[in-house]
Amino acid sequence: MTDEEAKKAILDSLGEKSGAKTKFYLKDFYKILPDMKPRDVKNIVNRMVGEGLLEYWSSGSTTLIGLKGAGKQHKEED
Amino acid sequence: MAKHKTPMLDDLEKGPWPSFVSDIKQQAEKGKQVLKDAPDDLLGVMELSYEDRVTHWKHGGIVGVFGYGGGVIGRYCDQPEKFPGVAHFHTMRVNQPASMFYKTDFLIGLCDLWEKYGSGLTNMHGSTGDIILLGTITDNLEPMFYDMTHELNQDLGGSGSNLRTPNCCVGRARCEWSCYDTQEACYQFTMEYQDELHRPAFPYKFKFKFDGCPNGCVASIARADMSVIGAWKDDIRIDQSAVQAYAGGELKPNGGAHSGKDWGKFDIMREVVDLCPTGCMWWDGKKLTIDNRECSRCMHCLNVMPRALRIGTETGASVLFGAKAPILEGAQMSTLTVPFMPMEPPYQELKDLIEKVWDWWMEEGKNRERLGELIQRDTWQKFLQIIEMEPDPRMVDEPRSNPYIFWREEEVEGGWTRDINEYRKKHQR
Questions:
Q1: What are the chain A neighbours of B165 within 8 Å (beta carbons)?
Q2: What tens digit of pLDDT does each residue of B81-90 get?
Q3: Residue B404: band (very low, low, confident or very high) from pLDDT cuts 50, 70, 90
Q4: What is the mean pLDDT of residues B268-283?
Q5: Where would you tag: which of B15, B22, B112, B394 has the fewest CB atoms within 10 A of its CB?
Q6: B104 Cβ contact partners less than 8 Å away, ≥ 6 residues apart
Q7: Is the Cα torsion angle B316, B321, B325, B330 positive or negative in sign?
């Protein structure tokens, strides 16, 4: 699977879930790309944040990741 | 004149102790911070929390600086109209210099920057060791980060599911017991794992800390997923004439630390030899003898008689894994894994070990499960297979209560199958 295909799979998967849950653990992304190594998935997810496709949410102790702009808190913080 | 009445907080200023309330009031009066109302409103919202007995802070947020997935934590007050100065009050975690050595001009520079962009309030230091800058608004995050990195050459630390800011004791800079250069190790590992430090990589937080000796001044054994604790392989060096000087009262024990009270005459038998946890020392009135094979490096004798006893010359570190697992089992200490490892740059042996551990934890760890919890859940035996180490009696915490090493079928002659008739010839039912 190429990086572009992996990104598309992530966006498609998160898009399907929109409306219910908007923030995900990094480990949830491993399930979207089961044939890739966790370290490679992590690198793709972090690149997608840099490209503005995804965004982090942090409680300080744990980090969650979701589609940029999705969820209630984004509106409050803008 | 204070903006809010804070009788309960004022009460905390009474007594002989330094008070964070006084510090915040001082910053409010000074008024040099760009967020003028932040200190006053912080006191106000805290007083309200004391009255209501609930927090008025919301949990977490999406803010950060570009390219980083850690080091900034979004904080918002749920009473923004009453306390506009802390409506947005984000925290920045800054990577502290190794061993927290500062030059005054650096501290002044950092405080000036934080007054330029934030509340002026700091927490020196957070429990991981970072410099905590308390309270700024989203628009000020990027300019603060730019100036801090360009003018002070200082970076953000870790937060969230990242590698957390590595931490080390004072090490060889000031301490004769340090068995390796903790500052160098801390710096090298910080630089090597920049990606893990600044972007989320793991199921949960991961901490490593570097103690130069078993005195453990950064308490790595209790607080780090990977604890690196200085150790020596050879014998404790003994200066017998200095031992006699301690025994005779010419040298003060513990570097004179017990001089503020009449502790009585120093008794080498009662205060050193009889306190040795493994009973590996003898004193015949003239000569101190140590059976170094039995020494567990508790450091007590070296601490009491530093001019007579010194660490060995073949030095390095012990590596332990798995401290701090508060959810599943309550707090736990790290478990000894590598009894001795040389600690010289570029520390390749230790880096290879960490990466094996991370690969396993990233794959098998549940969300918010610390490494120590995974080891408990998936067994120490599995952990040893992952890091390709053989079980060693020194890894056992409590004999007979944690028998976590089992034979595998391939290690047993004949495997698990047997000829029951042959067995019964020797063993009656």
A1: none
A2: 999 999 999 9
A3: low
A4: 96
A5: B15
A6: none
A7: negative
Q: Check B367 against A50: CB less than 8 A apart.
A: no
CATH architecture group of domain B167-233+314-410: 2-Layer Sandwich (3.30)
Enumerate the residues of chain B whose CB falls inside 8 A of the CB of residue A57.
60-62
Closest-CA distance of chain A to residue B200, Å? 7
Which pLDDT value is given to residue B105? 96
Q: Residue B132: in which H helix or E strand, if any?
A: strand B131-134
Distance from C-alpha of A30 to C-alpha of A51, rounded to nearest angstrom: 20
Q: Does A40 touch chain B (CB under 8 A)?
A: no
What whole-number distance in Å separates Cα of residue B357 and Cα of residue B369? 14
Average pLDDT, chain B: 93
CA distance A75 to chain B (A): 11
Alpha carbon of A12: minimum distance to chain B alpha carbons (Å): 22
Interface A-B: count of C-beta contacts within 8 A: 88
**Do the chains contact at B64 and A46, CB–CB below 8 Å?**
no
Q: What are chain A's domains?
A: 3-77 (1.10.10.10)
What's the CA gap between B24 and B166, in Å, rounded?
29
Residues 6+ apart with CB under 8 A from B90: B61, B63, B72, B73, B74, B75, B135, B136, B137, B138, B141
Q: What does the pLDDT read at residue B203?
A: 95
Tokens representing B140 are 């000020």
Least confident of B74-83, B227-236, B398-407: B398-407
Q: Is the pLDDT of residue B402 over 60?
A: no
Tell me the DSSP string of B249-290.
TSS-GGGGTTTTS---S--HHHHTGGG-TT--EEE-SS-EEE
Distance separating alpha carbons of residues A71 and A52, to the nearest angstrom: 15
The pLDDT of B221-250, averaged and rounded, is: 97
Higher pLDDT, B240 or B395: B240
B237-310: CATH, from 2.160.10.10, 3.40.50.450, 1.10.3810.10, 3.30.70.20: 3.30.70.20
Residue ranges covered by each domain of chain B:
7-151, 167-233+314-410, 237-310
Distance, in Å, from the CA atom of B75 to the CA atom of B58, rounded to the nearest integer, reads 6
ipTM surpasses cut 0.95 = no
Q: How confident is the model over B66-93, as a mean pLDDT?
A: 96
Condensed to tens digits (0 to 9), the pLDDT of residues A45-77 reads 999 999 999 999 999 889 999 999 887 765 556
Q: Which of B71-85, B249-263, B368-382, B401-415 shows the lowest per-residue confidence on average (mean pLDDT)?
A: B401-415
Which fold is adopted by the domain B7-151? Alpha-Beta Plaits (3.30.70)
Tell if the CB–CB gap between A59 and B59 is shorter than 8 Å.
yes
Fold agreement (B7-151, B237-310): yes
Do the Cβ atoms of B161 and A26 come within 8 Å? Answer: yes
